[in-house]
């Protein structure tokens, strides 16, 4: 199927980016550890990225792709390009104004977005300074999101999926060079904005190579542009619920002891690997596919594609969640524990990772279910669902952060994700737009059983190997490799016995004309 070939393209490039991200995070942990400077930079890095995910990637793609596809369907390439150029002009002006105002008001915004820093003037001032350096990144990466959405609508998934690689390479170069010669936090902040410029130029070149380059007309709020922004409004919450939960977690985490922001950051980075490689890849490929199928009136095929997307997502993410829950310390200590990152930091991060992982299947289910609404140009219903999950997340944060500290925040996010996914599936089912077929239900139960066996197996193996693996040694890295290989073999073998996967089905996923 074209869906799975697209997922493979996006996923492989995203995997490359995430692996480079691990290199970046390992260097960052060794240089800055989990102290005041790392907390300040993480806030400075996270804030423009949260706004990017809410306004640019999630909400913008959800609203832009279906409208752009309709322009192409009814008016051809010329109508599609004219619509994209009008959107570019209005988006550019809006972003310049927003970024300028945010940078001027940053000291006041920091009191709201990181209230815990107010009690530590040095950390607060550093966070404000670093965020002003990183915030222009939002301008360039948001314009890059428009470019990527156009390429995705034309089934050119490779260049947009490769964009994060540019960011990671520039940040790694900064950590190896300027960060060691000068102040590492400031060097990283400058590198973030430089990377945004580079990502924008990369996608501009990709558009030109594809014959899709845009000009910049005078900004005008045409009816089509107004419709886009009307759809974006509710989609800001609907498609960005998880990021809004992360923002709430970050705000509350600044009230906890120093290092808590860093613990959640490192844990989330590990948790984001399967989510980025699988969940985001499937969601990105599924939206234009469902939009085309529904435009053709093919409801049955759209529902079938959504079933297979969820099955494929669970097949790949549930074993990752099981590993994160079973052996989180093995991953965190091997990857991060060196330099300024201590054993206590590793243990605190591992506990947060296990809590985040409880919600990992729900995160990818949200990515697979939300296109069922957006492809039908319904961005309001996910808003109502997201608002409920955000309320639950906030209440659970307040209830759990006192006894469990930063782990309670991660656990609240996982529970809220399950509520969000369950509500999305329920509403789609009630409307007759989605029905979990027998194959999806059966495979999900078999995957759960296989993951339970795999989790117990890798937990026992790690405890058996641990006394023989010295910290900071190649043996420790090799031990983690053995653990990963054992997990893959247990999952593959057990899954084959239980019928979780079959060779013919895997082959059919990537055929242009799959067997029925």
Summary keywords:
516 residues, disordered C terminus, single chain, 0% strand, mainly alpha
Describe the structure.
With 516 residues, this protein is an all-alpha fold. The chain has one domain (2-509). 83% of the residues lie in helices and 0% in strands. It has helices at 2-32, 36-104, 106-113, 121-134, 136-153, 158-176, 178-181, 184-209, 223-238, 241-253, 260-295, 299-326, 328-336, 343-357, 360-369, 371-374, 381-404, 406-430, 438-465, 474-498, 503-509. Helix 9 runs parallel beside helix 17 (381-404) and helix 11 (260-295) runs parallel beside helix 15 (360-369). It is globular and about 65 Å long. The model is unreliable at 512-516 (pLDDT under 50).
Rg, rounded, reads 22 Å
Q: Which H/E pattern describes the elements?
A: HHHHHHHHHHHHHHHHHHHHH
Terminus-to-terminus distance: 11 Å
How would you sum up the global shape? globular
Summarize the main sheet. none
Which structural category fits the helices and strands?
A: mainly alpha
Number of helices: 21
Helical content (DSSP H or I, runs of 4+)? over 70%
Number of structural units classed as domains: 1
Tally of strands: 0
Query: Average pLDDT, to the nearest integer?
Result: 82
Model regions low in confidence, pLDDT < 50 over at least 5 residues: 512-516
């Amino acid at each position: 199927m074209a869906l799975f070939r697209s997922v493979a393209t996006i996923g492989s490039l995203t995997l490359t980016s995430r692996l480079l991200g691990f290199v970046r995070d390992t260097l960052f942990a060794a240089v800055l550890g989990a102290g005041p400077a790392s907390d300040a930079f993480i806030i400075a890095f996270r804030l423009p990225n949260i706004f990017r995910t809410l306004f640019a990637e999630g909400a913008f793609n959800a609203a832009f792709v279906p409208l752009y596809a309709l322009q192409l369907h009814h008016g051809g390439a010329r109508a599609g390009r004219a619509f994209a150029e009008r959107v570019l002009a209005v988006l550019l002006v809006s972003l310049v104004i927003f970024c300028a105002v945010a940078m001027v008001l940053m000291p006041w915004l920091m009191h709201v977005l990181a209230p815990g820093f107010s009690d530590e003037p040095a950390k607060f001032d550093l966070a404000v300074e670093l965020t002003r350096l990183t915030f222009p990144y939002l301008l360039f990466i948001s314009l890059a999101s428009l470019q990527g959405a156009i390429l995705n609508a034309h089934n050119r998934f490779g260049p947009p999926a490769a964009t994060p690689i540019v960011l990671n390479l520039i940040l790694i170069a900064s950590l190896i060079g300027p960060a060691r010669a000068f102040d590492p936090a400031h060097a990283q902040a400058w590198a973030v904005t430089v990377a945004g410029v580079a990502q924008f130029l990369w996608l501009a070149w990709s558009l030109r190579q594809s014959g899709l380059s845009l000009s910049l007309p005078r900004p005008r709020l045409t009816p089509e542009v107004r419709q886009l922004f009307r759809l974006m409004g509710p989609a800001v919450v609907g498609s960005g619920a998880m990021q809004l939960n992360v923002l709430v977690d970050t705000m509350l985490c600044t009230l906890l002891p120093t290092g808590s922001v860093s613990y959640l950051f490192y844990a989330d980075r590990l948790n984001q690997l399967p989510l980025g490689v699988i969940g985001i890849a499937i969601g990105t490929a599924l939206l234009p596919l469902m939009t085309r199928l529904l435009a053709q009136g093919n409801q049955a095929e759209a529902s079938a594609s959504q079933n297979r997307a969820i099955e494929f997502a669970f097949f790949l993410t549930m074993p990752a969640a099981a590993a994160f829950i079973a052996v989180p310390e093995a991953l965190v200590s091997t990857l991060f524990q060196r330099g300024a990152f201590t054993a206590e930091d590793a243990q605190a991060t591992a506990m947060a990772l296990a809590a985040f992982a409880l919600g990992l299947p729900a995160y990818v289910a949200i990515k697979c279910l939300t296109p069922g609404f957006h492809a039908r140009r319904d961005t309001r219903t996910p808003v109502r669902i997201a608002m409920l999950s955000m309320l639950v997340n906030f209440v659970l944060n307040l209830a759990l952060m006192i006894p469990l500290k930063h782990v309670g925040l991660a656990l609240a996010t996982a529970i809220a994700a399950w509520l969000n996914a369950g509500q999305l599936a329920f509403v789609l089912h009630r409307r007759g737009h989605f029905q979990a077929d027998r194959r999806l239900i059966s495979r999900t139960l078999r995957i759960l059983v296989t993951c339970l066996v795999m989790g117990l197996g890798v937990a026992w193996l790690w405890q058996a190997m641990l006394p023989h693996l010295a910290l900071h040694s190649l043996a420790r890295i090799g031990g983690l490799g053995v653990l990963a290989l054992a997990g893959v073999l247990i999952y593959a073998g057990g899954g084959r016995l239980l019928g979780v996967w079959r060779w013919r089905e895997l082959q059919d996923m990537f055929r242009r004309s799959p067997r029925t």
